[in-house]
Design a protein that fits this description.
two-stranded antiparallel ribbon, 7 strands, globular
Length: 163
């Protein structure tokens, strides 16, 4: 009987799998998301979606939804109780004094505009997303203008409740 060939994951696959595991700690069921920031095949920091330290989580008290009205007339819903996984990972690096210069960020979907600005300013050079965010064109443009490589594992929009 022939032994089945084991396919070792690529570094991108490995870090995305770690980000998926980190996401299990997220405390907002609308978008349980995790983030890994790595450089030179080493994990620097991780982050997941959750409320600021000491404040109640969505899973405990419910969502804090806000409607965003866009120029083209459509309205999207956003939970503003939580800090995004990317923001938490970047904050963790700052707390620990870890430079993110020339690092790669792995996340569930296209970073939002605010996350994109933080990614640009902290020196990250590459972002790998599992899927696209339904309202991510602004941040995609910003990352491109800043010379940051943006890659998607799946070229489809992430679906979740009350998008």
């Amino acid at each position: 009987m022939e032994k089945e060939q084991y396919n070792r994951p690529t570094w991108d696959e490995y870090f995305m799998e770690v980000a998926s595991t980190v996401a299990k700690r997220a405390s907002c069921d609308r978008g349980r998301s995790g983030c890994v920031i790595a450089r030179d095949k080493q994990i620097l920091v991780t982050g997941y979606v959750g409320s600021p330290r000491g404040l109640p989580h969505c899973d405990e008290v419910g969502h804090l939804m806000k409607a965003v009205h866009h120029e083209d007339g459509h309205v999207s819903q956003h939970c503003v109780r939580t800090v995004h996984a990317e923001q938490n990972a970047i904050c963790q690096a700052a707390r620990l004094g870890i430079s993110l210069e020339k690092a790669t960020l792995y996340c569930r979907m296209t970073p939002c505009r605010t996350c994109a600005m933080l990614i640009i300013n902290c020196g990250i050079v590459r972002v790998v997303c599992e899927r696209k965010y339904h309202d991510g064109s602004d941040s995609e443009d910003m990352l491109k203008q800043a010379g940051i490589t943006l890659e998607f594992v799946h070229d489809e929009i992430q679906e979740y409740e009350r998008q």
